[in-house]
Design goal:
This protein is an alpha+beta fold and 168 residues long. It contains six helices and seven strands; from the N terminus they run βαααββαββββαα. The N and C termini lie far apart (55 Å).
């Protein structure tokens, strides 16, 4: 059975709302001869940010796959696929912010970043554990969920502030 794990909603919403908060005013404050290009650029940027936040993970009984969009591929992100039986271990490395990132290490010596920003993360971790036989109880989201929620809230408040300032 194929299971699909999409990018976490709060990650997508925080990035999209931050983009909107930072760019909505630009078409309104640009000079007249740049209004049309700034509107076109705004919508192009919105399309790009929605597209690059649409990566997902697929699992089945035989393998795990990371799927990116065409835009993500053009920007350097790559699709990858690993057979469960090829995963030797899951290693962790500390980040500069004090959390940890995890890598699937294969018998061929390849390393693939374990997606830590997917919906149904607990189910994802159980799926990985049951298919590899590796105990991974310590793996969690790379950042606490409240950080994404806070960024979304602050971005939405910025948008309302911009709308209020524009309408008055």
């Amino acid at each position: 059975m194929i299971e699909k794990f999409k990018t976490l909603f709060f990650v997508k919403s925080s990035l999209i709302s931050l983009y909107l908060a930072l760019t909505i005013p630009i078409p309104f404050v640009s000079v007249d001869n740049l209004k049309i290009p700034s509107i076109i650029t705004f919508f192009l940027g919105l399309y790009l940010i929605i597209n690059i936040t649409s990566d997902y993970v697929e699992t089945c009984n035989k393998k795990i796959s990371y799927k990116t969009s065409f835009i993500s591929k053009a920007l350097g992100k790559k699709n990858w696929e690993i057979s469960w039986k090829d995963i030797k271990l899951i290693k962790s490395l500390p980040t500069s912010q004090g959390s940890k990132v995890y890598y699937f290490n294969t018998y061929q010596g390849e390393n693939f970043l374990v997606p830590q920003r997917v919906e149904n993360f607990e189910k994802f971790v159980l799926t990985v554990s049951s298919n590899t036989g590796i105990s991974i109880n310590e793996i969690s989201y790379i950042s606490p969920l409240w950080t994404y929620k806070l960024l979304t809230l602050l971005s939405v408040l910025m948008i309302f502030g911009e709308l209020f300032a524009f309408l008055n």
